[in-house]
Known about the structure:
It contains 4 helices and 7 strands, in the order ββαααβββββα. It has helices at residues 30-44, 78-86, 102-115, 177-191, and strands spanning 7-8, 22-23, 124-127, 133-137, 142-149, 154-161, 167-173. Strand 6 and strand 7 form a beta hairpin. The model is unreliable at 1-13 (pLDDT under 50).
Amino acid sequence: MVYSNEFLTPRLTGKRFDDHTIPLDLLEDFAALEELIIEVAKWKNPGSNFRTWPFDKNDKLVSFESIDHISLLDPLDVPSRLEELANLEAGWLNGEGVAMNREDLNWFAELFENNYNPALPLPHLYPTPLGGIQSEWSSEAYDISLNIDLTEKTGFYQSLHHSSDDVNEATLDLTNESDWQLLNQNLTGIFNA
């Protein structure tokens, strides 16, 4: 596929989406776009059979009249990942594991969107057995994590430099803007070094 320099500027929310565009060539692959639309629709409306959409005898989408909204998200998009974690039920970890509190997850999603430096890489997010979040960043030279206690609204930050064994640790008050600035500074020092 030959790529052009034409771009579609979508309406995306959150600081990390400022100045983002989507190449129009992405929309030229109708089969991939069709699959994306159907999968998103099925995910958003589980159990629906989409009989109102025009399908052929091979169950392929023939056409659609309009698209109100398409959101292409980074696989590490924090609010989307937190929505997934909110669906975990009690016992999700081999019969153990606390269900995540949706209100706490929404609180963290908003705080993250408002305080995390959008120029930095997004973390991988994992649930903890006690209902918290383990955030991990990918780096060749460091192991980096932030263990988030949603009840106490704190995070334990730790980075380990592989070759020197230097460790940087800090307990962060996630309700405090200066602690978010400290997290951003630490990560900037690692990823811009």
